Task: structure prediction
Amino acid sequence: MNPHRLCWGFAMSVPFAFVTAITLLLSLLIWKEKKRILWMPVNIILFIYILWMTVTTVFAFDPLAAWSLWDRMWRIQLITFITMMVMTNQLNINRLVWVVSGSIGFYGIKGGIFTILTGGGERVWGPDGTFIGGNNEIGLALCMTVPLFRFIMLQETKRYLKQGLLITMLLCLVTILGTQSRGALLGMICMVLFLILKSRKKLFLFILMITIIPIIIALMPQTWHERMSTIKTYQADNSAMGRINAWGAAINIAKNHLTGGGFKGLPIPWVFEKYATNPTDLHDAHSIYFQVLAEHGFIGLGLFLMIALTAWRLASSLMKMTKDNNDLQWIYDLSSMIQVSFIGYWSAGAFLGLADFDLYYCLISILVGCKTYLNEYNVPPISLPEANQKETSTKNFVRPLLKKVV
Result:
């Protein structure tokens, strides 16, 4: 959320995140719960990816900028692995989802109201100086957050909270349109379609989305429609052609350097002169895939894609293990909605350079925590015939779990 960026004066530069991280590390020393990480393909590959990024930083084109970004990267990944360690029960996982959703959802509510009041004539921006400061970036973050609100909505029993969460989801969708980000628009379309497919109440969401979204789009101003129409006519758009030029440079860098160009390998003038088709058109990669390719080479891109694949498979395995088990329905819902968030990130990220976005790795750590939770209570996969044996399920799982929770 970076709430300090909403302040003024000295508060804007106080390192609140650093203070919070130190507090967290100190609290681990007195925390009496068992501290361990359940190692599995996704976090093993992530650890290898971190090591490879360290190697590529040693050979970076711009060492000063690269080591600065490496310093940010390792701190993000440290918190990611700590999250895997401590988010191992239902209460903590649900709290984390609430905090993450509320933190980014704040900008969704705020931006949605702003878009409505201005008739969509002004762009929505995130907090300045953060991962989500740009209009493209806040749009991507909201594509990842809407499914988390849907998960919370599925767990809530209070009617007023369900209605409030539904309104929040709709305002977040309005904000995504209000960013006037073409990448975020594509991400939203993919995310919404997959959200409907993954939801328990498909018909309700389908009717809601096909009713609300066309109305919202129709109410957007002509300038918005003109900007979105450039998706089809990208050849005439300087920004789009600049990205394609940067993607070509990224491919050439990876072909010529095993370790890529290191963090911030693009845009550097001499790099574009050597590797780009148009050496005078300097652009960032504007794509999580080409960003990783330019910065960490083909090996880095391979590891990045393997993390995505293993994270998806982990979510699928969690859904399989908890299918038709009412006591574990929350894990099924959370895993399916995290998959929807992944779709939003991977699709919108194809046109936005947020490969190191901490929210993505936070979602992966939540999946690892869910897997640890299931292993802790020795929950076996439930086949369809076993799902009907309510008596066995109650005796073998519910009572021991209640004792643990109490």
